Amino acid sequence: MSGKGGSLAGKLGYQGSTTLVTPSVALVISGAVNNGAGLIRLTISSTATLATGNVATVSGVSGTTEANGTWTITVIDPTHVDLQGSVFVNAYTGGGTLIGGTAVGLGPPQGVLAATFEFPDVYTCLFALTTAGVLPIPTPSAIWPPPPGGTPPPSIPQPIANSVGVRPIAIVTWSIEGASFVRQIDIGSGALISACAQGVNVQVYDATSTVKGLANQQYGVSVAVTRGVRPTNQIPTLWAQEGNLVAPLGGVQIAVPQNVGVNSVEVTGFDTTTPGTPAIMLVQHQVGLQFNKAYLVEGDADVEFVRMAPGTVFIVITNEGPDPIKYFVTWGIDG
Hints:
Elements (H helix, E strand, L loop, with lengths): L13 E8 L5 E8 L5 E5 L10 E5 L9 E9 L2 E4 L13 E4 L9 E20 L38 E9 L2 E8 L5 E15 L11 E10 L9 E10 L4 E5 L6 E10 L8 E8 L2 E9 L7 E2 L4 E8 L5 E9 L2
Antiparallel strand pairs: 1-12, 2-3, 2-7, 3-6, 4-5, 4-7, 5-6, 8-11, 8-12, 9-10, 9-11, 13-20, 14-19, 15-18, 15-20, 16-17, 16-19
């Protein structure tokens, strides 16, 4: 982490930065042989997080030391991979790990900055990332995924499974008059969040595994704090991940995240049987044991954030169409 506490009085802004790495698991190597065509074939603990074409790093192999290095892999079965372009020379004698494939789990929170302001005012955090491979701030399309299932409109950014991009999330804790409140948002370059405050603490963590991005990617996150409010057309968001299939007339209840500033919700989905057919969903907001809001969402024409009443604890989605659907939920965050 770079950055330090202090006053913003008389300054144009305040900045901090940190580095994140998408989480990975070291897969244990227990064997290395000639695959029959001269390539090195490794026996590993599991290939569940790997796919053909992934880049992986092998280290610590004894005997077949020519396996150590960075390779593009071919997945053979649940416990074997081939190292593309390798040449098997020496017999395996033991050891070794392989790191690569899909990111696994959430990264630990990393501090970016902590600042104390001279007097209460409206301040804005502006985030930026140092990689061009960043997944967009997720607002899923109602007609995702790509053909034959549909095409994501350019105006609605969409996280892509198996993308080389990343997904960082920020935890922003504002403080004023001895009280504090937390906001949690997806971030990419240009993400903004504002509040009236006397101080702010910003942490970020990596959530690339939730969109099936790749492991062991390093990237930088920076934030600048300036006095003033964000543009009103840029809503801070927190993606809730894509849901499972919902059968016709079936429903699903989704808990609203608490104590992170959720004040609206956007629900989208697509028909999994008939390409290009919009999903028809009844969305209801539950406060306590009662529904206080109900509306239909049909296709991308209805994609919008809908305000939630204070105390909303669940969103209930019912499939009103003739085919199974897959749904997406994005939370709008106050700020």
